[in-house]
Task: inverse folding
C-alpha cells in the first residue's frame, strides 16, 4: 500500500465513520472537476469500463453475468432488482436481521409482490436450516433475498449456507451485498445466485449517486415486462445500455467519473482481498482499542464484519450519545447512532479511506471524549451483556 497516503493531502475535514457516504480519496473528489456529455463516446466508454470491471469483481469469467448500473441510492437498486427479477406472480422469502432486511420486505409490500418473512430481530443470523425448512414448507416461494452484511448491526450473515439451502430447493437467490461488495469475497461462480446489488458509495469508496445490479443474463432475459416501475426497471436499463451504450435517463456523469478513479484505487490496493485486508485491520485496531477502554461489542468475534461495528453505550449515568457525538465530531470523527431496539448502542464504520493509524486516533478520541464527559467507565449495562449471550446460545 505504498502508493497510498492516509489521510489524503487536502482533506482536513472530519473522517466519516459511517457506512456510506464515507471518506473518499482526494483523487476521487478531483475526478469530478470535469463535465461529460451523456451521449458522447467518451462517457459511453466509461460506462462500459465500469460494467466490465464490476462483473470481474464479482468473479464471473464466463460471461454468464452482466452489470446494470442504475441512478439513485442503494435502496432504489434493491427495489429495481426485486421488481424486475421477481415475476408479478412470484413469492419472496425475505431473511431479515435488521433494518435492511425489513426494508426489502417493505419494498415488496409497497410494490405488491407476495413475500414471507423470517425476522430474526436485531442481529441473530438467519441460518441455512431455517431457510431450508421455510422453502420446504411453502412451494409457492420462488426467490430468497438475503442481506450479506446487515449494516444495522454489522453482522456478516452466513451467505454460503443460505445459498446452498436455496439452490438445493431449486429456488433463486438475490443478494443485498450493498455494504460488503468490494471488500468481502463474493464469487458468483461458487455462490449460486441470480443477482446481487451494491452501490457506488460503500466499499468501492466512490461518492453517492448510483448503484448497480450484477445479474445472471438468463434471469434478466426472462424478466422483461416484470417491473412495476418505469425507471426502476433493470431489464429496460440493460436493454438500452446493450443497444446504445447509454443510460436510459440522465446519468450521474460526475459520480461515474469519480467511481472509475475509485476502481483504480481499489485495483491498486489489491482488489477485494487488499481492500478487505485493510478494513479487517481497521476493525481489529478499533475493536481492540475500544475494548481496552472498557467498551463491549454487540457481536462476538465470529460474527464481526470488517465493515461496521456496534458498541453498547456505557451504562455510566453521565454518558449521553448526543454529547458523545459532539465530542467525537470536535475531534474530527463523525460517528453513527445504533439501531438496536432492546439496548442503546452506537456504531463505528471501518470502511472508507481510513487506515490503522486513523483508527488509533479514533480510539484516543473516544477516550478523550469519555473523559470530557466525566464518564470513568465504558462498561455497558448488564442487560446489554445478557442480550449478547442470546447470540452465543
Ligand atoms: C447502504 C445499504 C443499503 C442502501 O441504502 P441507501 O441509503 O439507499 O443507499 C441497502 N442495504 C444495505 C445492507 C446497506 O448497507
Result:
Amino acid at each position: 500500500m505504498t502508493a497510498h497516503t492516509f489521510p489524503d493531502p487536502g482533506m482536513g475535514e472530519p473522517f466519516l465513520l459511517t457506512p456510506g457516504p464515507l471518506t473518499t480519496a482526494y483523487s476521487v473528489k478531483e475526478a469530478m472537476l470535469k463535465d461529460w456529455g451523456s451521449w458522447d463516446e467518451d462517457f459511453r466508454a466509461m460506462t462500459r469500463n465500469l460494467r466490465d470491471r464490476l462483473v470481474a469483481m464479482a468473479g464471473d469469467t464466463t460471461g454468464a453475468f452482466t452489470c446494470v448500473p442504475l441512478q439513485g441510492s442503494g435502496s432504489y437498486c434493491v427495489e429495481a432488482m426485486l421488481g424486475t427479477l421477481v415475476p408479478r406472480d412470484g413469492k419472496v422469502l425475505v431473511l431479515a436481521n435488521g433494518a435492511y432486511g425489513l426494508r426489502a420486505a417493505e419494498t415488496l409490500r409497497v410494490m405488491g409482490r407476495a413475500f414471507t418473512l423470517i425476522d430474526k430481530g436485531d442481529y441473530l443470523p438467519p441460518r441455512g436450516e431455517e431457510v431450508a425448512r421455510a422453502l420446504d414448507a411453502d412451494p409457492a416461494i420462488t426467490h430468497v433475498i438475503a442481506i450479506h452484511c446487515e449494516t444495522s448491526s454489522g453482522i456478516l450473515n452466513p451467505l454460503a449456507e443460505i445459498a446452498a439451502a436455496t439452490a438445493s430447493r431449486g429456488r433463486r437467490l438475490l443478494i443485498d451485498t450493498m455494504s460488503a461488495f468490494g471488500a468481502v469475497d463474493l464469487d458468483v461462480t461458487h455462490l449460486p445466485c441470480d443477482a446481487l446489488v451494491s452501490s457506488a458509495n460503500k466499499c468501492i469508496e466512490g461518492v453517492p449517486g448510483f448503484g448497480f445490479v450484477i445479474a445472471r443474463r438468463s434471469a434478466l432475459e426472462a424478466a422483461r415486462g416484470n417491473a412495476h416501475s418505469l425507471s426502476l426497471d433493470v431489464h429496460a436499463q440493460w436493454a438500452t445500455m446493450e443497444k446504445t451504450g447509454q443510460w436510459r435517463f440522465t446519468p450521474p456523469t460526475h459520480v461515474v467519473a469519480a467511481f472509475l478513479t475509485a476502481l483504480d484505487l481499489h485495483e491498486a490496493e489489491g482488489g477485494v482481498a487488499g481492500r478487505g485486508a485493510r478494513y479487517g485491520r481497521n476493525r481489529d485496531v478499533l475493536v481492540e482499542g475500544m475494548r481496552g477502554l472498557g467498551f463491549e461489542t454487540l457481536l462476538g468475534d465470529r460474527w464481526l464484519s470488517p465493515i461496521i461495528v456496534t458498541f453498547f453505550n456505557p451504562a455510566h449515568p453521565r454518558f449521553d450519545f448526543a454529547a458523545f457525538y459532539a465530542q467525537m465530531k470536535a475531534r474530527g470523527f463523525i460517528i453513527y447512532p445504533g439501531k438496536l431496539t432492546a439496548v442503546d448502542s452506537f456504531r463505528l464504520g471501518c470502511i472508507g479511506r481510513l487506515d490503522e493509524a486513523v483508527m488509533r486516533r479514533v480510539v484516543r478520541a473516544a477516550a478523550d471524549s469519555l473523559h470530557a464527559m466525566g464518564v470513568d467507565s465504558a462498561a455497558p449495562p448488564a442487560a446489554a451483556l445478557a442480550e449478547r449471550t442470546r447470540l452465543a446460545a
Notes: The pocket of pyridoxal-5'-phosphate is lined by residues 19-20, 73-75, 78, 100, 147, 151, 176, 178-179, 199 (CB under 6 Å). Residues 271-292 form the longest helix (22 residues).
